[in-house]
Amino acid sequence: MVYIADVFIYLFSISDRLIQTTEDRIGSVYKKVMLKQFTDGSFRSEIKPAPWMGYIGPTIKGETGDVLYIHFRNLASRPYGLHPHNVQYFKDSEGSLYMDGTSGRDKLDDAVPPGQTYTYRWFMQNTFAPTKDDDNCIPVGYHPHIRSNKDIDTGLVGILLICKPGTLNPDNSRKDVDREFVLYADTVNETNSWLIDQSLNLCLNPQRCRQLFNQKNGAFITDTLMYSINGYIYGNLPDFPVYDGEKVAFYAMGLNLGVHVFGVQGQSFTFKRKRTHAVVFGIAWFEGFYMTARNPGRWMIFCKVNYHFNHGMAAFVNVMPRPGVLPPAIIRRTRRYFIAVEEIVWEYRPFGRVLARVGKGSTERSRIEERFFTSDGAVGGRFVKAVFIEYTDGSFQRRKKRCKDEKHLGILGPPVRVEVGEMLEIILLNKASRPYSFNPFGVAFTKDNEGAFYKNDRYSNEVSGAAAMPGKQCRYIFTVPWDYGPTKEDPQCVTETYQSFVDYARDQYSGLVGPLLICKPGTLNARGRQRGVNKEFFLMLMNWFEQDSWYFNQSISLAMLNGKMVDQENDMLRDVNTLRAINGRVFGNIGGFDMCVGDQVSWHVLGFGERFDYQNPVFEGNNVQYDGRMIDHVSVLPGTSQTVYMTPDNPGKWLLHAGQLETQTDGMVTRYNVDTCNRPLPVSVPVFEKTVIRRIYIAAVDVIWDYAPRKINIVTMGDLRDPNTPGNLYVRNTDMFIGTQYKKTVYREFYDASFSTQVQRTEKDNHLGILGPFIKAAVGDVIEVVFKNMASFDNSIYLKNLPLDNEMSKHLRNGVKPGDVKIYRWLVPERSGPGRNEPNCVGYTYNSPVYPHKDIATGLIGPLLICKRGVLDVYGNRMDKTNREFALAFVIFNEANSHYFDENVRERAPNRTNLDDSIFQQSNNKFSINGFIFSNIPNLEMIEGDTIAWYTFSFGNFNGIHSNHFHGQTFIKTSASSFRDDVVGVVPGSYETVEMFADNPGTWFVHCHLGLHMSAGMMDTYTILPRNHRGPYRVGPQMLRRARIGRALRRRIVY
């Protein structure tokens, strides 16, 4: 039974910064609204939560087949409701306010008035249940959804647990774990809370704080952003208590702003059946992860994104000793490394020139490249750094020479390798001028061997951590128990990292990072290298914020700049002193990525850095095997790492670059070389009796595109043309603002090579909007694109994840001149198709690669579908069980990067002279789905019982990470395994395919769950029509009947 009400409380948190209440700052105490659990329907006797719960609402649990009855009483001062993820509900229990065509009783659940009670019914149907590959319980969130970002920032959040039958005890605890904890990490914007007006009264000078708030003062708002765990910052959350040897389940979620990467010092997790030391979640990515607690002590649990950690996103897991628990039996052998920390002068561009770039070279690009090296305030390409250097023995007299295969390592420390059941001994000599340490992730160690420095006692100012002082040595002992090693679902070596952790972020930016491989027993040969692998490469894409390095002042002196003239708080100077590098080199100045056709290559991709380091390295020409998929990219975030394998079959010199458009433009690019080595080329395409040639005529066409033909905010129900309606900025149309209509260039299909008649879109593909047409093929087919450039600038069409030769790649990047026609052909090999367990068709993308950041901003993107053999007929129609296909592109179009921006300003905002005005710049960022904002996509419609394929992808920059949430339905995401969800996340340059069984009729919300994106228009609806619907897909005023609900196994009732 669950009794929930929302009530007022004060939130207390104490920190070293952002916590002091002053004349012009609120501090750390805010008025909140919480969800509370009660014993019965009188709502008088509260069930007290555990101290570590903070302000999170109660954890609601159920098993497949259950029906949850949630009696919700609103004891607060404004309307609220409850909206769950990942369970089935009718329209009268969705708890979400938007224009969905319902009325009457179906609207009562959306916003419960103060003092009223409402009962929600949530069904844990089989079609919404955990899959066989899911954990026994999957966590999802629940929260109000009137204005969800404001509701969440006000404090109304909770976790719902959906379990497989037989998992729960009668008291609702789990049978299969010893401890359960909820971890809610979010960037809480207190100025966005419904109660900000009351919180402003907590300032010492409320009038001054209110003035700053009304002025939207940037510094004031920044200081009200709370990077919190369960509502606390800087370790003030009461500890998560656990005993040594216990199996612990963590249920993690973020909801509103930011992606988080959490780890626990000295501990290791299983996550989605794989081994890791860090788990990614956030913006409605709900995750369960598990650990077996080892080594008594108080261990820090923290977000590994530098900015989040520095702003307080840390707490503690207290592992308490338990009599009779013995440490795991290990130590088959000891691997010993002698490593020194040394200060050097590092060259980001040692060759002094650009050796690789993404797109066509131009004067404009040269200016972008040179601003890092010649502009005022830029230190240039030479910086003082500290790096890890390996030595041959404990005398530290002779460096261990890096061999040819290690040339690519660049600034990285030496690769450290260890097998399960072994001990790792590190002898660290500090030759630098300040203290440093050695802290690995993913291995076990005692508190005496921990290389991380932090205040480990709530009531003491002492700091724990083992470090080497300048000129001194420090010996570290680490172990790899069996429950820290790769699982059967993992590759033979799991990629982890190590770093100095005296200061988590500054030590990174100073250069002290390196790779660690944790391998299955018997994987490493006598030389310590992986068996069965010909080449082993380590890859780190990172934004180096040199102003956060310990040595920035020395670097200023090295560059002979006047330190007094370098304003270190100036954002522009911070930008020019941020180097976007691969292994510490920019614009192709890192080499050594050399391999032969047919080699077995392991790539170990490392993630470090800042909140914008959502890296997505792209391998052109070949692809990699990752989690049962064959794709051209792999995603890593700060604190995460991945192992992927490549068997190159396409010789040539290929680009390896960031997926983010801005960072690839700014230098995060290099080349890798595939040589034939006198070997025969492997046969990558099955031989069929008849090759199907799928020919399509596509042109780049200029259009006047309208982002919002209908200007209604479907959440607030307001007219967007009204200046007081949220979202008005994005449709504002005056002589100073462009509005929603822009000249753009898009891909469009034509009937033949005359390019005289454009193919008119139908109900099947109207939803594509600004996107080009579906390009479809099956494994073994040949795709032939007859392409005409009908625009006014050079462009072309590049199909991702398909092989091409160097000559074709060069032509694609040089582009097709306006008015010219070019024929491109791609053969579809098996390694570009769906993996063995993947859906029959998977979605990729295509775009113009000439000036990617401009071409994409102008509109040149589209969906590519590759299917298994025999799935498509000769017309490209699917012959399997899939009834409908939809592509959704979550893209923030920055119109200032468009080829036509100057023309659009001149024609539609003629009196605009200040293009640097921040409000004007924001108005030209269109937070779109398929080029539409605020629910303008046509024909997102299907019929009950349909099987739907959704192809979701993203292009963009650091803010192009999106979280696509479907109301009313769930989907299955399948790669090596299958998992149930209702949110699919994408980062710039990535693509995902999910399958949905539409069994819940209604008009349902689909939106990016990141609050800022949704409020700016990244939202729409899709409609499931009832099974008895006849005729074409049309939404009418008919009443949508209830979905069929199976017989409940158990009713969890609230009176």
UniProtKB/TrEMBL annotation:
BP GO annotations: iron ion transport
Domain Plastocyanin-like: residue ranges: 55-163, 623-675, 919-1023
Keywords (A to Z) from UniProt: Metal-binding, Oxidoreductase
A GO cellular component annotation in the UniProt record: plasma membrane
InterPro entries, per database record: Cu-oxidase-like_N, Cu-oxidase_C, Cu-oxidase_fam, Cu_oxidase_CS, Cu_oxidase_Cu_BS, Cupredoxin
PANTHER family, per database record: MULTI-COPPER OXIDASE, PLASTOCYANIN-LIKE DOMAIN-CONTAINING PROTEIN
Entry's family note: Belongs to the multicopper oxidase family.
Protein name: HEPH
Biological classification of the source: Eukaryota, Metazoa, Spiralia, Lophotrochozoa, Mollusca
